[in-house]
Design goal:
Blueprint: E1 8-12, E2 17-18, H1 19-31, E3 35-40, E4 45-50, E5 53-59, E6 62-63, E7 72-77, H2 82-87, H3 91-98, E8 109-112, H4 116-121, E9 129-130, H5 137-142, E10 146-147, E11 152-155, E12 158-161, H6 167-183
Parallel strand pairs: 1-3, 1-7, 2-4, 3-6, 7-8, 8-12, 9-10
Antiparallel strand pairs: 4-5, 11-12
Length: 184
């Protein structure tokens, strides 16, 4: 048994998530011994966007109505254009994200590509140094973040990356943050 056994991480996504940005972090977390739950707006399956077309279906473990944020040691927010745009319009999704930074119990929140749009909506970016897909650089700056062009940026409990090419660094930063949190 590893120290990460029985520690759960949530991945919040809906139809249109970038396929590699959900699948690869999920695989990396499970390989490191973490339990991973896919949380979404609906039961059943959600469908990935894979570069230029619809991709794989992924089974949803829990809906947002069923998920309890305090059960999770961390949260992963995949990008893709459709996924974060839809989720940021859902109050329950925004509240779920905010719960990871409340009450002095900050837990890692990792967002990649367009995923930081959700951090903006959750009002978590002001004064933070973050990265993202370049097209939302201005959105992050307008919300008070300092944007940098790096594979991964870690500021307090927020971990951000630019795109699927950065997934190795992104996954490593998530696992390191989760393992650090479980030691403390």
């Amino acid at each position: 048994m590893t120290e990460s056994d029985n520690i759960s991480v949530a991945i919040l996504a809906t139809d249109g998530f970038e396929q590699s940005e959900l699948i690869k972090p999920k695989q990396a977390l499970e390989s490191a011994g973490f339990n991973v739950d896919i949380i979404s707006l609906k039961k059943g399956d959600i469908t990935a966007w894979d570069e230029d077309n619809w991709g794989e279906k992924v089974a949803v473990d829990l809906t947002l109505d069923e998920a309890i944020p305090s059960k999770y040691a961390g949260l992963v927010l995949p990008g893709g254009l459709f996924n974060p745009d839809k989720l940021r319009q859902e109050k329950s999704a925004v509240k779920f994200i905010q719960a990871f930074s409340q009450f002095g119990n900050k837990r890692p929140i990792a967002a990649i590509c367009h995923g930081p749009w959700l951090l903006i909506e959750a009002q978590l970016v002001e004064g933070k140094t973050l990265t993202s897909f370049p097209s939302i650089k201005t959105d992050l700056k307008n919300a008070g973040a300092d944007w940098i062009d790096l594979k991964v940026a870690v500021d307090d409990n927020l971990i951000t990356s630019r795109n699927p090419n950065d997934l190795d660094a992104f996954n490593e930063a998530i696992i390191e943050a989760l393992q650090q949190d479980t030691i403390n």
